[in-house]
Amino acid sequence: MSSPTRVFVARLAGATVFDPLGDAVGRVHDVVVLIRAKGAPRAVGLVVEVPGRRRVFLPLSRVTSMEVGAVITTGLVNIRRFEQRTAETLVVAQLFDRRVTLAESEGGGEATIEDAAIEQQRNRDWLVTKLFVRRRRPGSGLRLRRGEGLVVDSGAVSGLTGRQQQGAAALLATLEDLKPADLADVLHDLPDTRRLEVASELDDDRLADVLEELGEEDRVEIVVGLHPDRAARVLDVMQPDDAADLVGELPATTAAELLERMEPEEADDVRRLLAYDEHTAGGLMTTEPLILGPEATIAAALAHARRRDVTPALAAMVFVVRPPLDTPTGRFLGVVHLQHMLREPPHDAIGTIIDSDIESLAVSDPIGKVTRLLATYNLTALPVVDGDGRLVGAVSVDDVLDHLLPDDWRDADDDVTDTAMSPRGSVTHG
Questions:
Q1: What is the pLDDT of residue 83?
Q2: Within a domain: residue 415?
Q3: Is the pTM of this model over 0.85?
Q4: Are residue 44 and residue 169 in the same domain, yes or no?
Q5: In the chain, what percentage of residues exceed pLDDT 90?
Q6: 286 in a domain, yes or no?
Q7: Of 275, 295, 300, which Cα lies nearest the Cα of 285?
Q8: CBS domain: which residues (predicted)?
Q9: Cα-Cα-Cα-Cα dihedral of 313, 316, 322, 326, to 10°?
C-alpha cells in the first residue's frame, strides 16, 4: 500500500474483496482486532464472507489496498471457516455498542462506541487509532435523547476489555437487510453472551424467522435465555411445525411453562404436533398451509399466496376444503396449483380448477413415503388427512430436507476452491 490509510469499519463492512485480477472474492463481514493492555488495539485481519455463506479469515498482510467499497488482496485466501480465537475481538459484532469511559482530556463521562477507524502504520501494522463515540447524557437512562457524537483517540477511552452488558443497535443496523438464514449464520458465529444480546434486540417476527433457521443448540440457548413471556410470544409467531420442533428440544419444565404462556390456539397446534413421531408425516407437517373453500376466487387465492408469512414451498398450492377452514378442516377436496391459477381469469372460483388426483398422506406415514411422493409428482407440498378425510396439515419439501440432512448441516463447510490458498494456521497474527 503506497501511503497510510485510515478506514472506518462501519463503512468498510460490506465492501467487496477483489483478487489482483479484479475478480470478486467475497465481502467484508467484520474486522478482527487484538486488544492489548498497553497501546492501541491491533487489527490483524478481516472476516470475509465468500460464496456459500462461508466466512473465512483474511490476514491484513494479504491486503494490498483498502478503501470504502473495495479491498484488494494478493489472491491468497484461506478457505477454512473462520473461528474466533480467545484473544480476538470482532469490531462490528463486539466493539460496536460497547460502553466505555472517556478520559478527562475528552471531557470524561460514559460513551457508547458507534464506529472505529483502523490506520496503517509505517511498520505496516494496522492499529485502531480512532473511535467514534456517542457521549451518554447524565441521568438519561436508556431512553435519553442521543448525546454528542465525537471522534476520539482509542487511547482516550477505558473499558474496551472485559465483559459488560452491551446494546446491539449498531450491529443490527449492519444486518437489517440480511435474509433470516444469513442472519442466523451471523448469530451462530457470535460469542454466546453477544448472541443472546443481539437476538433479544430483534422484534418478535424477525427473531421467529431466525430461530427457524438456527441449529438446535443455538436456538435452545436463545429461547432459554429470554424472559418466558418474550419466548412465548416468539413461539406464537413461528410456523407451528418449527415451534413444535423447538419446544420438543427444550427441557421439559421450560417447554411446559412456555406452552402455558402461549396463545391457547397456537399452543394447541404445537401440542398436537408434538404427539406425532418426528419422522412421520404428522411430525413433519405444518397445521397452517393455505386453506380456502371452493367458492373462493382465484384473485383471493393469489392474495393469500402473496402473504409474507407464507413460505415459497407452501405458496405453490392452495388446499381446498369444505368448512371449517381451520385444521382439522371439513372434507378435503384437492389442491389448486399456483401456476394453474396464473393461467385462469382472476374472478373464477378455485373450485373449478381443483386437482383431486394428489395422493394424500396419513399422519403415520413414514418420511420415506413423503419423499417418494414429493419426488414422483414434482411437488413442493403434500396434504395430510385423517381417517375421516379431513385436512389436518401439509408437509412441505423444506421441512423434509431439514429432517433428511445431518443434524449439523448448518455448520458444515461448503466445497470452495481457490487458485491460491493458505491455511490460517500458517499465518501468525497474534
A1: 85
A2: no
A3: no
A4: yes
A5: 65
A6: no
A7: 275
A8: 354-412
A9: 30
